[in-house]
Design goal:
By secondary structure, the chain is an alpha+beta fold. It has one domain: Double-stranded beta-helix, CATH 3.60.130.10. Helices cover about 30% and strands about 20% of the residues. Strands 3, 4, 5, 6, 8, 16 and 19 form a 7-stranded mixed β-sheet that branches. A 4-stranded antiparallel β-sheet has the order 7-17-10-15. The relative contact order is 0.20.
Length: about 350
């Protein structure tokens, strides 16, 4: 069922769901067909001498996979907005082979996009230590003198991740190893959050549909504005999009030249966080699980985790940001962040210092 907006302003469609309901509905869980797994195995061996950044649909062929990938893209764009793919035995492959498999699968699903200004299109998500913020992005202090971590730095820690979206049509995570404790994935329908806030507090909903100041937080080179304004909720042609990361809103408030949020805008954002928590559900990765999320309609977060490297339980995920060929058109004012806002166009990702193109 395609998403749409009715006469009351509410969104409808399969992407509008409550956590307890989608947890029982397994339409979003899919199994790799045996033929595709066999072809993955063959393609890994056949492309052993090709650098992983040069893999594509032609030199990493999965001829029986097209209907499967089409079904995944359809579920992401016009279904629940999320897919969990199971069946890949990661224990059979080396770390390099897993990187090659995951990147090639991304090329079959869409276009991998840059995830930072260093030109990375595939990232390993793991705990890299407490000084991650200083090592990768430089030290930023808040008003109390405490280190304020960027979203990218928080991702590479063992701490909790608040509900947010990434700047791409689809974020994909392949689990290589899971932590000894924690690391639970939390998911919520931003379309359902949209409806719930509209029902409870239409005045606050209206504010979330108006521009909110954000900061690029030094993670992006080539951006036109260090601080920009963008609504949290947007709708175009009956389909919604929500771009939200509290970290970038908070960082903008630390900058003297950024517009300060009103008390009512703060209230609206707090309500969004509270409603999202109430409507979410939780799931835990197992090695080999692949989670794909449509960022326009899904908020995701993560609980803190604890590794135990001695037992092989040190959490490792491989992440892709994808632009997909069946993506929705975005509101015109989203161009400040997304670039081309037309449907089906490569957009999103992080601007690079020079005019680079993803491999």
């Amino acid at each position: 069922m395609t998403e749409s907006s009715d006469m009351t302003g509410e969104l409808s469609g399969a992407c509008v769901w409550r956590g307890e309901d989608i947890a029982r509905n397994k339409r979003w869980i899919k199994q790799f067909p045996a033929s595709v797994l066999e072809q993955i195995d063959s393609a890994v061996r056949m492309t052993a001498d090709i650098d992983w950044t040069h893999l594509n649909r032609e030199n990493f062929p999965l001829p029986s996979g097209k209907p499967f990938f089409d079904d995944i893209r359809e579920e992401l764009e016009n279904g629940s907005g999320m897919v969990m793919v199971r069946g890949l035995d990661v224990s059979r492959y080396s770390p390099d082979e897993l990187r090659r498999i995951w990147y090639a699968l991304g090329k079959h699903l869409g276009t991998p996009m840059f995830q930072n200004c260093r030109g990375e299109v595939l990232r390993e998500i793991r705990d890299v230590g407490q000084d991650v913020g200083t090592k990768l992005y430089g030290a930023t202090l808040d008003a109390t003198g405490q280190t304020f971590l960027s979203s990218g730095a928080r991702t590479l820690s063992a701490g909790q991740l608040r509900f947010h979206t990434d700047r791409c049509d689809v974020v994909g995570l392949m689990c290589v190893r899971q932590a000894a404790e924690g690391g639970v994935s939390k998911l919520a329908s931003s379309a359902m959050v949209y409806n719930e806030i509209l029902r409870r507090r239409p005045d606050l909903h209206a504010l979330l549909c108006q521009p909110i100041p954000r900061s690029r937080f030094g993670e992006e080179a080539g951006g036109e504005h260090v601080v920009y304004e963008l609504p949290i909720f947007g709708v175009r042609e009956g389909k919604s999009t929500s771009h939200f990361s509290l970290t970038y809103i908070e960082n903008a408030q630390m900058l003297p030249w950024a517009r300060k949020l009103t008390a009512t805008e703060h209230e609206a954002i707090r309500m969004l966080m509270d409603v999202t928590e109430a409507l979410c559900f939780e799931m835990r990765f197992a090695p080999g699980d692949i989670q794909l999320l449509n960022n326009h309609v899904i908020y995701h977060g993560r609980t803190a985790f604890q590794d135990d490297a001695s037992s092989g339980q040190d959490r490792l995920l491989m992440r892709l940001w994808l632009s997909v060929p069946n993506s929705r058109a975005l509101p015109e004012d989203h161009a400040v962040l997304w670039g081309d806002v037309a449907s089906g166009k490569p957009h999103g990702g992080i601007a690079q210092p020079a005019t680079a193109v993803p491999a």
